[in-house]
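URGENT: need a sanity check before tomorrow's submission.

F., can you look over the NAD(P)/FAD-dependent oxidoreductase record below? I want to be sure the sequence and structure line up before it goes out.
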Amino acid sequence: MDICIIGGGLTGLVAALSLSETSEVTVLEKKPILGGCMASYQRDRYWIEQYYHHCFAGDRHLFSLLDDLGLGDRLEWLKGSTGYYVDGTVHPLTSPIEILRYPHLSFIDKARLGVLTLRAKGLDLGSLDDVPAGEYIRDHLGDRVYASFFEPLLRSKFGDRRDEVSAAWLISRIAIRSDRGVEGERLGYLNGGWHLLIDGLEERLLSKGCTIEKGTPAVSLEHTGGKWLVNDRAYDAVLATIPPQEIGRISGDKTFAALPYQGAACMTIGLDRDVTDGIYWLNMKDTAPYGAVVTHTNFAPRDRYSEEVVYLASYFAGKPAQGLKERMLVDFCRRFSVPEGAIHWSELAVESFAGPVYTTGFARIIPAYEERGLYLAGMFSRPNYPERSMEGSIIAGLEVAERIRGGPHD
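C-alpha cells as predicted:
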C-alpha cells in the first residue's frame, strides 16, 4: 500500500514508522524541518526547542519509543519549580513553606487548593466534560481562589474563550502535574534536547525507505477513481495529522467540522542573567503580552548552554497581534530590568494551530480515526484528551497506524 502522511509532527512520524513495516510511506511537512511544535533551533553550542517540552512519569509509550531509538539513557528527571508574578513581585510557590507565605490566598484557600490537588487523579473526568472550569472552581474552592489564582491562568492561556474551557481539562492538568515534592515538580527531559527524538525518527524512517518531503505543504486533496490525490499524486490511503478545518480547506469538503483551536507565539531568548529568581515556571498574574516566563536553564543545567535560556509563552485566536515580538521583548526587559546588552538573541515561533481548546462538550466532537475514507490523527485525537502531550500524540500515531492496516475499529 502506498500511503501519504500529511504533517511531520510526532503523530505523523510515529505512524509512518509503524506503517513503514508493510507499506510505502511518504511524509509531507510544510516547514523546512520536521517536528511540528517539537521542532528546535540550532545554536552555536546547543539545540533548544522552539516550544518548551517535558514529559511525565506515566509516559510509557514515549519511553518505549526512546528505548527503540537508542535514546533511553538520555532521559533524565529534573525538578520544575513554580512561581507567580503578582503586582510586580516574584512569589515562589514550590515548597510548602513558600505556598504558606503566599499573601494572595488565605490559609483556608490554600488548604482547599491542596485538597483539590490531592483528589484530582481520582476524579471522573467524563462527568466534568460539560462543566466550565471557572464554574467548577468557584463552586468548590470559592470566588477568591478563582479570581486570584485560576482566572489569570485561564485568561493567559485561552483569552476570551476561558469561560468555555471544561473542568475536565483543568482537573486533568492539575492531576498530571501532581508528581511533586518539596523541590518542585518531577519532569522528564532529554539530555541534549528533544530534537534527538525527531532526528532519530527521521533517520529510522529514511533507513526503512520512507520518503520525507520537507518544505512541501499539502495544497490539494481529492478522492477519485479509488485513489487519493495529494498535490496531484495518487496514494492508496492518506493520514492527515492537520486540524480537520485544514483538511476541509485543502479538499474543499466543508463537512469536516472545525474544531476549536488556538495559536501559540513562543519567544525564546538567550541572555546573560537569571531574571526569575531560580524559578522554572513563572505564571503571570499581572497583565503582559505573555502568560508565563519559562526559564529553561532553571530546569536543565545551565552549563549545557553557556547562557540563560528563557521562553515567553503567549496564545492567540486567529492571528497573532501585529508587532508581538517587539512588544514581548520590550515588556520583558522593562518588567525584569534587563538591559538591551544582556540579550544575546531572540526568536519568535508562531503556530496558528498549536492545539485544540478543550471547550465544554469537546469529548463529543473528537474525530474518529477514519472519516469518509480519510484517516485522521493528531493533537485532536482521543489519546490527547483532555490534555495534549507527547504521550498522547504517540498513542494516536500507533492507533491510527493499526487502523490503516485493518485493525479493530475505534
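My own read: The chain has three domains: 2-53+194-260+358-404, 107-181, 261-356. The first strand starts at residue 2 and ends at 6. If you see anything odd, call me.
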